[in-house]
Design goal:
Largest sheet: 10 strands, mixed
Radius of gyration: 23 Å
Shape: globular
Order of helices and strands: EHHEEEEHEHHHEHEEEEEHEEHEHHEH
Strand content: 25-35%
Helix content: 25-40%
Number of strands: 16
Number of helices: 12
Length: about 425
């Protein structure tokens, strides 16, 4: 969990006098009405509140200590790291999704989702803090990403959570996916749910999905999830060992709309002076992958209904998610932070001098070089509401794209949503009721 601790002027002065790192590691004890601090938390220490300019000046670890009178407790704050320069809370607010922006006005232990979004915003603004926060998260129970096996597993886990959210299903179940040990074989994300055996796949479409996936993959896990009259079929497929797998593709098929989305994952790493930014430098595979995406979209255009029966903002299926190369898995069911761009947008940026360009003039896709992109919240909302995705006879080409992903040495997460679609108003009510997370 994540907490915010707002310093009194005296506490801020005391911390300011701690010049050596070992003094900050030792930390200090803060007394207040903090009975809800039940366990260890990553804590953002805020100063400047009394001047109307609150800012995150330290990050550390906090835990509940001894009672200090009625309704008051000591909070022990240790492993502090000075944030230089401090990050204004208003900058964090600007980086947060709209529904989480009020978190910057809170104190104490945050909800799981708000805390995850806050740390994501902080490391987006200050990539140099990612390693520090990763260590703090590990100390309070995070999963360390040590090598290629867990790295690939994390991307598959994220794609699985994204598929659940795109279908309007509760993605919190991905918390139950167990990370594999490094050095072993890659095991696909396996979740609770109905195993996708023939006796469970009574719907024709779900059986067809199994036929599309086939059974020749080295590692395969299939599940079916139910919500009302809807079923969500998810298959996680690895044809090659982890060290030979180039990345992850997500193919999401909405049966009633006959619409699909292809999301390809690309990792951003810390770059720039002091490793202060996140960015992806195009490698030799990107041109080939963009070429394949163009071929997919040209095939979709040929199969499109004439005239189209459904309006889209974007009716091309191919997207790239540039996502952070996490050192510690996001807590709970949080998705990996990142940027979603269409294939067309990526190619447009590559052709514009000054855009997607790093400080030394090379190509770089990152938060500081790409002026506009979709985040997790916006992307999933647009897919759920049918504003993006192909239109018409998508199923005619999906099987070919599944084969192309696996032949291209990529892991695959395939999801097919079966059943009548819900209205936007119904989905809004579900989200407010907490069904989609």
């Amino acid at each position: 969990m994540v907490a915010i601790l707002r310093c009194t002027p005296g506490e801020a002065k005391f911390l300011g006098s701690r010049k050596r790192q070992e003094q900050l590691d030792a930390g200090w004890e803060s007394v207040g009405e903090r009975d809800e601090w039940k366990s260890r938390h990553v804590v953002l220490v805020v100063t400047g509140q009394e001047r109307g300019r609150p800012r995150v000046e330290y990050v550390g670890q906090a835990r509940c200590g001894r009672p200090a009178g009625t309704f008051r407790r000591v909070v022990e704050v240790t492993q502090l790291h000075r944030v230089a320069p401090p990050v204004p809370m208003e900058d964090l607010s600007d980086q947060l999704p709209l529904r989480h922006r009020d978190v910057v006005d809170r104190s104490g232990v945050l909800t799981k989702r708000s805390g995850e979004e806050l740390l994501n915003a902080l490391t987006t603004l200050r990539a140099d803090l990612a390693a520090v926060i990763a260590q703090l998260q590990e100390r309070v129970g995070g999963v360390r990403i040590l090598g290629r096996v867990r790295e690939l597993f994390l991307e598959q886990r994220d794609a699985t959570g994204l598929a659940l959210q795109l279908g309007g299903f509760d993605r919190s179940i991905i918390e139950e996916a167990k990370f594999p040990e490094e050095g072993g074989d890659q095991i696909p994300v396996t979740l609770p749910g109905h195993p996708a055996h023939e006796d469970h796949l009574v719907a024709h479409d779900a059986q067809r999905f199994s036929d599309w996936i086939g059974s020749d993959a080295e590692h395969l896990a299939k599940r079916v999830f139910h919500k009302g009259d809807q079923q969500l079929f998810i298959a996680n497929v690895n044809r090659l060992p982890a060290e030979d797998t180039l990345g992850v593709d997500l193919i999401y098929h909405h049966v009633s709309r006959d619409s699909f989305i292809l999301v390809q994952y690309k990792k951003m790493v810390q770059v720039g002076a002091g490793r202060s930014e996140w960015g992806y430098r195009p490698d030799g595979d990107l041109d080939d992958q963009l070429k394949r995406m163009r071929q997919v979209e040209e095939a979709c255009m040929r199969l499109e209904q004439d005239p189209p029966a459904d309006y889209r903002f974007v009716h091309q299926p191919c997207w790239i998610k540039f996502c952070k190369s996490e050192q510690v898995a996001p807590k709970g069911d949080a998705l990996i932070g990142g940027m979603y761009l269409t294939r067309e947008h990526v190619e447009w940026l590559r052709g514009r001098p000054g855009l997607a360009t790093g400080p030394k003039g090379g190509e770089l896709f990152g938060y500081h070089t790409v002026p506009r992109y979709l985040d997790n919240t916006t992307f999933t909302q647009l897919v759920q509401d049918g504003w993006i995705g192909t239109r018409g006879r998508a199923s005619d080409i999906i099987q070919a794209q599944i084969k192309a992903s696996l032949d291209g040495s990529r892991a695959l997460v395939f999801a097919g949503l079966i059943g009548d679609d819900t209205t936007q108003a119904e989905r809004t009510r579900e989200r407010r009721g907490g069904l989609t997370g």
